[in-house]
């Protein structure tokens, strides 16, 4: 018996919510986001990458004001009927050889990556790891988004494993990561 949960050979309940789109009015919003970054860049600590993740950062409400129309678009794509909020945000800068190993952002809600400084000729986007193995050969399934550029926002479940390959370029890569509930 077919139901609304079934789409061709796929069960909709097992699908992974995933959104990739361009931020509206990117040039204006980029400048506003970079001003926030510039006020907090001295808080960045070097690890696998430069990040202000472990610091007392309280700028998520400023980002919400800048990005809310784009987040509402994502909310509508996912069919979410409640209000969404950015509950945490942090910048990550990848200098040459910096990377970020496989990780997730916990459980519940959505995470996102906004590419602020990204050159597709020199940088690789975030790679996502499926929560299940390939049904044909048992290998790990990965998804590398295409057509990523500055201003691309990717939103995904917080529990979805992902990583950033090493930056092999002398050109820095800067992203904004956010958790959204």
SSE map:
Elements lengths: L5 E2 L2 E2 L7 E4 L3 H15 L4 E2 L3 E2 L8 H19 L7 E9 L5 E4 L6 E8 L9 E7 L6 E4 L8 E6 L4 E3 L8 E8 L1
Antiparallel strand pairs: 1-2, 3-11, 4-5, 5-6, 6-13, 7-12, 8-11, 8-13, 9-10, 9-12
Give a short overview.
This protein is of the alpha+beta class. It has two helices and 13 strands, in the order E-E-E-H-E-E-H-E-E-E-E-E-E-E-E. It has helices at residues 26-40, 60-78, and strands at residues 6-7, 10-11, 19-22, 45-46, 50-51, 86-94, 100-103, 110-117, 127-133, 140-143, 152-157, 162-164, 173-180.
Largest sheet: 7 strands, antiparallel
- The percentage helix is 10-25%
User: Which blocks of ≥5 consecutive residues have pLDDT under 50?
Assistant: none
Can you count the beta strands?
A: 13
The CATH homologous superfamily is termed q2cbj1_9rhob like domain
Helical region count? Answer: 2
Q: What share of the residues does DSSP label as strand, in percent?
A: 25-35%
How many angstroms separate the termini? 35 Å
Instruction: Give the CATH architecture.
Output: Sandwich
Any idea of the CATH topology? Jelly Rolls
Descriptive notes:
The chain has 181 residues and is of the alpha+beta class. The protein has one domain: Sandwich (Jelly Rolls), CATH 2.60.120.620. The chain contains two helices and 13 strands, in the order E-E-E-H-E-E-H-E-E-E-E-E-E-E-E. The strands form three sheets. The chain has a seven-stranded antiparallel β-sheet. Strands 7-12-9-10 form a four-stranded antiparallel β-sheet, with no helix packed on it. A two-stranded antiparallel sheet has the order 1-2. A hairpin with a 3-residue loop joins strand 4 and strand 5. Helix 1 crosses helix 2. The longest helix is centred in the middle third of the chain and has 19 residues. The chain is globular. The N and C termini lie far apart (35 Å). 23% of the residues are buried.
